[in-house]
Structure formats: structure tokens, C-alpha cells
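User: Round two. Same drill as before: sequence, then structure, for each protein.

Assistant: Same drill it is. First protein:
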Amino acid sequence: MTAAMRMMEQSLKAVDGVITVLDARAPAASENKKLNKLFENKKVLFALNKCDLVEKKDVTRSLENLRAQNRAAVAVSAADKKSTDKLYAAVFSLLSEKLERNKAKGIFKPLRVMVAGIPNTGKSTIINALAGGKKAATGDKAGVTRGKQWIRIGALELLDTPGTMPPAFENQVMAKHLAYIGSMNDANLDFNDLAFEFIAEIKEKYPELLRERYSLSDVSAEPLDIMNEICLNRGFLLKGGEYDYERCASAVIDDFRKGRTGKIFLE
């Protein structure tokens, strides 16, 4: 992370502005405050990505919160061309003064914009959606982008950068939310504990979604009892009929990440 931040700091001299990508399911948790300090002298556009995974009202509220802080913001879903077109237009609107200055000087060159954010918020996926093809490396886990990549898209040159996490987590609730959405390295997580915590939280916020997804008889039950019932309903059993908590935990977290559980706003 230190090396990535240093590389981004050096690259800032070459860019006109920044797109900071947030996850629409956890926008506050997915904002790295250290990046804000790094970009304080640049025009920044916040892209609220994966907005198709939450309800429209939650997207609207998140955008209003960002704009109330005098931040330019736009909602994006890589699968929706209209939203990526809006993002493209929003970049030019944000940097209109730079464009006018270049035009007055007789300079006609692409705007150069850095795309930044924490891991697995969909930075590379957004770039590919804008480009209309696979230009940047993507994956469904944290840490796919290792170095910087320049991608030319029309009158834009976008710099894809590695995901950067804050050095510490003072808010443990936000830390859990980042683990749910896949921004942390799964290899460093205990998925049994993670699924337990997720069920405990979601059964209070979205009980009906949990009930419908896993055909639960009593969604008010304790998280462990819910996991036991999911194991029975899904056939996650070991020899001797013992519950296979590892398969259950992986399925629960994967269902959430892929949007199969339903539209869930964590904050």
C-alpha cells in the first residue's frame, strides 16, 4: 500500500483530475481518507459504483450526502451504458475549465484522469465499461491491479491504479463492511466468523431478504441457528450429518457480493 500511494503521488503531476470510486453498498467505509489528503489540489469526481446492488433511494441519499460536502458525484453501474455515459460526461464537466484553458492556448490533447479507490470497488471494471471492451485487468477479489495502466478512451486517458486501503481501522463496523464487500484479502479472513457477523447484521436490517433467500422458518433466531438451517436447506453437510460451516459461510458471503441476496445497503 505504501508503494502504491507513492506511485500515485508521483503520477498526480501528470493528471488533470481524479475519479475516486466508492462502493454504493458501503460508501463511507469504502472511502480512504488518506486519498482525500493526497488529492486535495486536484479536481475529484466521486463515482458511486455498483449502484445496481442497492435500492434507488439509497443511491440518491448517498449522492446527496456527497454533494452536501461540495463533492462532485455520479452513480455508476458497469452493466448500464447510460450510467457510464453519465460518468464520461461528468468528467468533462468537472474539468471544463481545464478544457477551456487548453482550447484558448490552441492545445487539443486528451484529458488525463487517475482512477483511484480501495480494492475491489470496481475501478478497472468502470474503465472497461467506458472503453467498451476489456482494457484493464479485473477480478472479483481484492488486489487484481498491481501496477499503473494508462487506457485511452476517446478524449480521455485514464490511469488505473492499485487499490489502496487506509493503514488502520478505527471503526470496526466499517471494517466488517469492507470484508463483506470483498475489499480485504479473503485469505486473511475467517469466513465462518464473517458470515456469522453478516447474518447477525442483515437479519436486523433486511430480515425478509434473508428469509426469502434461504427459506428460513424463523429469521429472528440466533445467527448460529440460522446458519444451521441454511446448512440443512442447502445440503451443506459433512459425513455423519455434521454441518459444513465453511461451505455455508462461503455461500452466504458470495450470495451477498453477487447481489443474489437482494439489494442491501450496509450503512
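Second protein:
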Amino acid sequence: MKQLNRDNRGFSLVEVIMVVAILSIMAGVLGYSFNLTNGKPAEQCAKRLASAISHGRTATMGKYRNTITVSKDADGNLIVTEDTLVLAKDEEHGISEDVTSQRFSKVGSKDVKVEYRIGTGSYTELANGDSIFLRYDSGSGAMKKTAPGDAYYTGFKISKADKTWYVKLETLTGRVSYSTTDTTSLPPSS
């Protein structure tokens, strides 16, 4: 009987498919971890912060008073709290204020650096345990001066790794926007 001569110097189709599948999984894991380390958390924080402040501004319209608190808790997480107050009339005792609602949002994690700007000055880091307060006019939606020195808070700078996002607070219109460019030093839009 003749013996067959087998040549085993190549890869089978199954082996090639397995190698490609393993490399694809490894590339996906590396891509995901790269997103976590490059700046995706800064973008998400900027987007959530702008949304939470914008919601607070909208909630102010038609209410007596709405205070938006942007703070960092002891763990370094960025928190936005919205307190809405209305006037409740009491015929016998006059007018009193009642807290009607409180909205609490965690918008950023501890690995994101958050800074705020007053007027056209430089940015100041928001440290753990620090808070700033924002208020808007209930009739026009314009910002009120709540910063030290009877000034306006005009924006936030949010960064992680080499990525930086800016949240702009327009004082005249109350509009809140976010982008990768710092436009807080530009004059307010009309």
C-alpha cells in the first residue's frame, strides 16, 4: 500500500478565522479602554452639565425662584441640584415660601477636572466640597449675578487627559451651550 504524503505547511480556514476573531475582540477592548482614558468622560460631563443647567433655567420660567447648585461632593463627583421655590399665600399669616421640588443629577465622575469662570477672568478649579449657585430671572430667563463681587458665572471648563470641553453660560439670554472651543471671553450674543 502506498502511503500519502501530507504537507502541513499552511493554516486551515478555521485557524485563520479563529485568529481574526481573537484579534477583533482584542481591538474592541483596546478601543473601549482608549475612549475611557482619552476624553469621553469630559465630553459626557459637559453635555450633562449643559443639559442640567438648561433644565434648571427652563424650570425657572414662571416660578418664583429656582436655584441651581453646581458642586463637587467629597468623592469628587460633579453634582447639579435644582431647588424650586414658589410663593404660597396664607390668608391668616401672610405670604410664605415653600420648597416645592428638588432635582438632583450626577453629571460627572471624580476623574474629570471641572473649572468655572467668573466674567472674563481666568478659570478656577471647583474643588471637592465646593459649590457655586446659578439663578435665572423668571420672566426673561436671563442670568442673575450670583458670583462673588456682584458678577456673572460665564462658563465651565471640563477636561480629562488631553481633551477639553467648554460649557458657555450666556448672561443676557440665559442660553447654555457646550463645545470644544472656549467662547466665554467673547461678548454676549444679542
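Residues 121 and 130 are 19 Å apart (CA to CA).

User: Perfect.
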